[in-house]
Amino acid sequence: QVQLVESGGGLVQAGGSLRLSCTTSGPTISNYHMGWFRQAPGKEREFVSAISWSGGSTNYADSVKGRFTISRDNTKNTVWLQIDSLKPEDTAVYYCAADRDRWRGISYLRSAYEYWGQGTQVTVSS
After folding, report:
1. What is the average pLDDT value for the chain, to the nearest integer?
2. Which of 35, 41, 81, 93 fits as disulfide partner to 119, beta carbons 3.0 to 4.6 Å?
3. Using an 8 Å Cβ cutoff, are 111 and 44 in contact?
4. What is the pLDDT of residue 1?
5. Strand pairing category for 33-39 and 46-51
6. pLDDT tens-digit profile of 104-117?
């Protein structure tokens, strides 16, 4: 059972940066596509970014392109989300998720991801 743990959230001023991490102490995630999603109060959980199991392919929501960068190090069993130029509308709980079907392309759909972390809160003040 893959257990994902996010960290790195916090309170930051608009324009600032944070680096979110997602790791697991259980089975390796090196063969999983990994995604980041976020959920703001009163809103649906939405796709933010995803990276293929090899790290060779990435995808971003239009709202974060050019500001967020996803990366991974399979030797460290860790995925990161670098978030720059933060805006108040980026305030949300950010979730890491794992998709075990490495033979299909990376997905922006929540239903494609079998394992989820508990989330880390990101709050951006204006």
Report:
1. 96
2. 93
3. no
4. 83
5. antiparallel
6. 999 999 999 999 99
* Residues with Cβ within 8 Å of residue 96, at least 6 apart in sequence: 4, 6, 20, 22, 34, 35, 36, 79, 116, 117
- Please state, in angstroms and rounded to a whole number, the distance separating the CA atoms of residues 51 and 121: 21
Cβ contacts of 114 within 8 Å, gap of 6 or more = 2, 98, 99, 100
Q: Which of 98, 86, 95, 76 is nearest to 123 (CA)?
A: 86
Q: How many CB atoms lie within 10 A of CB 61?
A: 16
Tell me the β-bridge partners of 34.
51, 98
SS3 state of residue 40: coil
Residue 69, beta-bridge partner list? 82
Q: Count Cβ atoms below 10 Å from residue 33 Cβ, excluding itself.
A: 26
